[in-house]
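User: Teach me something about this protein's shape.
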Amino acid sequence: MALTDKLALLKEMLDSAESNLRSARQIISELAGTGDLKGQYSKKAGSLKSTSEAGQIVEGVFDGQNMIGPDGKSYPVPANYASKSKLVAGDVLKLTISDDGSFLYKQIGPVERKRVVGPVVYEDGQYKVLASGKAYKVLLASVTYYRAEVGDNVTLIVPALEDCEWGTIDNVLPKFES
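Assistant: First, the predicted structure itself:
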């Protein structure tokens, strides 16, 4: 068997093992009751307020892509804002909806964070970072903002105390030649 064939076989075996690990972790989180992250964010957001003055003010929880309001309603967070502000799932945001319909977000309650390191991959039409034995989804805006490419090692920011499916890119680690 040629060296390239062996490498291809090894890569296929690793991909299969990673997929099986992700599936096993998903089953464990479903059995442990941690699988419904949107429900957890809705519950956390339920204790926040929504007021109406000059425009409307809604507080909610960032789920990795959107803000979940106290009513369980999802509000779109611009991906470039989430990426550049390094928002993490679980962060509390305040949304001001002005009379002209424009949205202004502000982070008012950051969740405790930790950093993990792993390579960028692209699977199922989604960029992800493989770190700490898990595949974290990342926003396309983060990948393009940091000019990350598949195979680059990145530092990823994730919630320290919560299990989540989303992370935010902090830095792309430089490649050192040996």
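Now, about its shape. The chain is about 30% helix and 35% strand. Residues 1-35 form one domain. If you'd like, I can walk through any region in more detail.
User: That's plenty for now, thanks!
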